[in-house]
Design a protein that fits this description.
By secondary structure, the protein is mostly helical. It contains 4 helices and no strands. The protein has 2 domains: 41 residues; 73 residues.
């Protein structure tokens, strides 16, 4: 890789972008948990509050999922489909990739909620 390519995040390989986003998410989540433990006074108090808030956090996650899905279906997807129509092949290859990506995203959401459900039922402890 040349230096200009390394300095321009738009030209980074997708695996590097994914890795950086994952590391960033872990750092932000760790900071939030550390702040929560500090505000609650102890890890035990934090875990007790977390247990009481679990149903509300479940509803919050599903509200966020619903918002993202609506945003995707009403705003982003129509724009993307219009732009794909301008491709040389009419966007057939890109549409199939987009459908596959949509299925992966749904699978990830279901897996996240499945593991959260297992944890909520006591299977993660």
């Amino acid at each position: 890789m040349t230096l200009p390519r390394l300095l321009d995040p738009r030209r980074w390989p997708s695996l590097v972008v994914f890795g950086m986003a994952l590391i960033g998410a872990f750092v932000v989540c760790g900071a939030i948990v550390a702040l929560g433990i500090r505000m609650m006074g102890s890890q035990v108090a934090f875990e007790a509050a977390w247990g009481q808030a679990t149903p509300w956090l479940f509803l919050w996650r599903w509200a966020c999922y619903a918002g993202l899905v609506l945003w995707w279906l009403k705003l982003w997807r129509p724009r993307l489909v219009r732009q794909l129509g301008e491709d040389d092949d009419g966007g057939e290859e890109a549409r199939s990739r987009m459908k596959r990506l949509e299925r992966y995203a749904i699978g990830v959401m279901v897996a996240i909620e499945f593991f959260n459900l297992l944890d909520w039922m006591g299977g993660g402890r």
